[in-house]
Amino acid sequence: MSTNRRDQPFYMTATTQFGLEEVLADELRALGAKIEKVGQRAIEFSGNQQLLYEACLWCRTAVRILRPFAGFAAPDEKSLYREVGRLDWSKYLRQDQTFAITAVVNKSNLEHSLFVAQLTKDAIVDQFRNRTGERPSVDVKNPDIRLHLHMLENEVVLSLDASGESLHKRGYRQQTNVAPLNEALAAGLLLLAGWDGKTTLVDPMCGSGTILTEAALIAQRIAPGLYHQGKFGFEHWADFDAALWESVQLDARQMRLEEPQCYIGGSDLSREFIELARENVAAADLEDFIRLGVRDVKDAVAPPREPAGIVLTNPPYGERIGEETEMDDLYKTIGDTLKTNFQGYDAYLFTGNLQAAKRVGLKASRRIPLYNGPIDCRLLKYELYRGTRKVV
Fold first, then answer.
1. Fewest Cβ atoms nearer than 10 Å: which of 85, 238, 249, 323?
2. 344-370 burial: b if 16+ Cβ within 10 Å, else e
3. CB-based burial label for 116 (10 Å; 0-12, 13-18, 19+)
4. How far apart are CA 210 and CA 217, in angstroms?
């Protein structure tokens, strides 16, 4: 009986960042998912319980994995309260568990997501109180059960959040007082660049090393979810299959490759950043796979005796007033370094300063729109031929 339930396919949604949708769809397909729809920042797919567990463990570019379980129309607050109250919440939540609701509202009569979340919470709590005299508590920071409500044009979809803590938070980052690249975005940049984990990778402005760390996870076939802090959301669900989850984790651990697959190296002018990068790399147990050094970008060179591969870097954008000249000079230096020292490589520059990027002095063969937080960015590809052609 349990085996049949385990194998029964159901619908899921994986959320991601703008621009990474196709990459995430490819990741899900590789796990055996049937892709139903590629939307904006979300992929709808179907699969069984094992696939749900594997998606949380293996998807590098996913932010959350959701399992929809109810849908209805709610043109006003009375209908929302009534429809939520009609669901049997004992299937999804015990009164001794904590829960939280995230609401996303678009183009609906009810405009305020916090109000919608509050009303949904009231309907759930009132049902428990009326049936049992007791109610589950709300815990917005670390709930047992995370619920996701999506309301579009008065149509509501309620989902269980399988992820727990956001999947991009891998758990290897040692300090959070700097604002480095989000881990899922860093992995997405590598996959958008077509990097296969087998060719040379250099980041000459590596900061705290997020791109390099994600690269090593790809190259060594390590599931990013193995670093996840705390329990995944699905571990609190009524249908949680502990034996299946243990088996999925064991399979993932056995996939890890112990021999370095390629050269992965990076440098930064800041000794402080390189020390932080070393701490992150050590926390991820990847010291054997990543080379780090303190070096100005103008002195960065292709590693000797290694085949040409990819340069991928995320330079500063210069968001403070008065930094325009400094950024222009920096991006010109980056371009000069690429042209002189990385011939035969493909270079990828991820930046939110498109004006300064013009100073690179190379013609981009690809321009992929992305966001870094709220900042409109581009991933720019430069093909560094022997005797690279300059922009005329």
1. 238
2. ebbbbbbbbbeebbebbbbebeeebeb
3. buried
4. 11
Decide if 24 contacts 62 (C-beta within 8 A): yes
**Could you give phi then psi for residue 332, rounded to 5 degrees?**
-65, -40
Q: CA 343 to CA 62: how far, in whole Å?
A: 34
Beta strand 64-73 pairing with 10-15: antiparallel
Mean pLDDT by 10 residues, the chain (392 residues): 67 98 98 97 97 98 98 96 97 96 94 94 97 94 96 96 94 73 96 97 96 98 95 97 98 97 97 94 97 97 96 91 86 97 97 96 97 95 76 44
CA distance 370 to 140: 29
Contact 80, 119 (CB under 8 A): yes
H or E stretch at 7: helix 2-7
DSSP code string of 94-147: -TTSEEEEEEEEESSS---HHHHHHHHHHHHHHHHHHHHS--PEE-SSS-SEEE
Contact 362, 390 (CB under 8 A): yes
Question: pLDDT value at position 2?
Answer: 41
Torsion angle (degrees, nearest 10) of CA 48, 54, 59, 63:
70
Half-sphere exposure in the Cβ direction for 87 (13 Å, CA): 22
Place of tokens 């930064």: 268
